[in-house]
Amino acid sequence: MIEGANKIQVFEPHSSSLPPLRPYFKDFWRRREFATELSKFSDKAEYLESKLGKVWLVLNPLFLAVIYFLLVTIIQGGRGQGGGFTTLAHILIGLFTFYFAQNTILLGASSITSGGSLILNQAFPRALLPLSSAISAARQFFPTIPIYILIVVGGKLFLDDSTLPGLSANYLLLPILFVLLVITSFGLSLLFATMNVYFRDTTKLLSYIMRIWLYASPVLWQPDMLNGWYRVILYLNPLGPILSANSRIWMACCQPPPNLLAVYFGHSFHFY
Amino acid sequence: MPSASKVSLPDNLAIRIEDLSISYKINVESKKTLKNAIMRASKGERVRTRTVEAVKNLNLDIPHGSVVGIVGANGAGKSTLMRSIAGILPPTTGQITVNGRISTLLALGVGFNKALSGRDNIILGGLAAGMSKAEIESQTDSIAQFADLPEGFIDMPVRTYSNGMYSRVAFAVAVNMTPDILLLDEALSAGDAAFKEKSFNRMRELCEEARTILIVSHALSSINELCDHAIWMHKGKMLASGKPEDITEQYLKFLNVGELPSSYEDL
After folding, report:
1. What is residue B145's three-state secondary structure?
2. Residue among A12, A118, A120 minimizing CB distance to B128
3. Interface of B with A in 110-129 (CB under 8 A)
4. Helical H segments across chain A, by residue range
5. A211, B95, B155, B261: most buried, per Cβ within 10 A?
6. How far apart are CA A89 and CA A186, in angstroms?
7. CA A109 remoteness from chain centre
8. ipTM exceeds 0.95
9. So what CATH class is B64-264?
């Protein structure tokens, strides 16, 4: 309803697909609080009726990780690394990170079409709706990290698993990786949100794409399992390098190889 | 989005519309799906669209403090014009210059989430309207008071509200944000007779504070009562502009429905 902080506003013809970018980004930044609060209120509404409330934010990916762990263990005939605990830790961190990207993309893709009345009756930068979805996805992602740390610490204490890492300065790379992941996921969500405006079955197709994407990402398998040309899957996958780098830091405290990071920087800015 | 052009506007004007035309394309295909797009591409066909010219060559100056009523039959372009003034739809040609903060009530409960309480929705509605959280929180109580809901309802989920109660909250949010320019589209029928009186009084207060109000309504008696100027739109063009009584009379003659009391209520 109330538009623009400036007193005089001029509305001139522009392509409906691409508004003037400078005022758009200015307004986008000015109205960022709307995206944050919309995300908070949407989450509040979603879990209002649920007994466990926001605990589901952690339980959902946790249960899925356990299911995938059982699946992988059965397929491998019980020959998991480090007595299986390392595999569980790899799946957990991979799945938690992948689900952040998936939620950002899936929620963001439908955010414009599901915001029908808001879009028709309010003037605001439309990209705030996918941004709000990305914030919701981040609010679901962050509580999973302490859970992961608790599980790993528990594993180190009770299973005496020497393959699990201790403290390292390489953990400082994680926020950088997360920023790159946000850029990639938000960029992809804008792309799919636009596609969904023109082709309303995009979100349906996207749910299958995301499932294939999960299997093609180093979540249920470790990057070292790929040999030769199969490694191309890792580099072509927009989320492949980050999931691989993320796993290397969390699992082995290793710095990701520079070529992996270079590919990932490329993907991030390309998709944004 | 508002452009950063350096355009001056005479001090007495709130809105200047220059040579405004708005047209948009409607996809005539039954379903906009990827499957249909692929099928169409395989046959070498293009997307079938129809262009709707909603507003044609409109020129209008609206001074500060005026209350302008817009009348016209369905499809006249009234709502499209309001959306364009609010900056939602870009002009196809021409230019709109607006001097002041705009508050709109183009549909009831925009941005509302029915699972949340009335109080939460006031905040959500205000944020959707462009206010900051601090701004809207400082006014939540007065907005809730204006909506005048039965005891305790303001903290209950909006899905438990009647249509009238829902409309009252939405209306209260729009008129209590101290806008310079208020755009109302068919929002005058919110609530019961007592609330209507309260809404009219609030709008009179806004007029006295030199706020500018644009009202789209089929309730011609409200247009006559509230407005000091009216325009009649038909098929995207402005057919007449003048005193509300003259315009509504011309409009009634055009509609050929006579001057019965009911004619002034909802056309």
Report:
1. helix
2. A118
3. 110-111, 113, 115-116, 120, 123-124, 127-129
4. 21-30, 32-47, 56-75, 85-114, 116-121, 128-141, 144-159, 174-198, 202-215, 231-236, 240-252, 258-271
5. B95
6. 26
7. 13
8. no
9. alpha beta
Q: What is the DSSP string of A97-124?
A: HHHHHHHHHHHHHHHHHHTHHHHHH--S
Cβ of A2 and B37 within 8 Å?
no
Can you give the pTM of this predicted structure?
Answer: 0.82
Give residue limits of the domains in chain B: 64-264
Q: Which two tokens stand for residue A179?
A: 């920023």
Mark A233-247 as b/e (b = at least 16 C-beta within 10 Å).
Answer: ebbebbbbbbbbbbb
Cα angle A26, A192, A4; round to 5: 20
Q: Mutation test of the interface with chain B: which of A26, A122, A124, choosing the one with the most B Cβ atoms within 10 A?
A: A122
pLDDT tens for each residue of chain A, 272 residues long: 444 444 788 888 877 667 788 888 998 999 999 999 999 998 888 876 666 667 777 888 888 888 988 888 887 776 655 567 778 888 888 999 999 999 999 999 999 988 878 888 888 899 999 999 999 999 888 888 888 888 878 877 777 655 666 667 777 888 888 888 898 899 999 999 999 988 888 888 998 999 999 998 888 888 777 777 777 777 788 888 888 888 888 877 676 666 666 666 666 666 55
Neighbours of A31 (CB within 10 A): 19
Interface test with B, best of A11, A16, A29, A119 (most B CBs within 10 A): A11
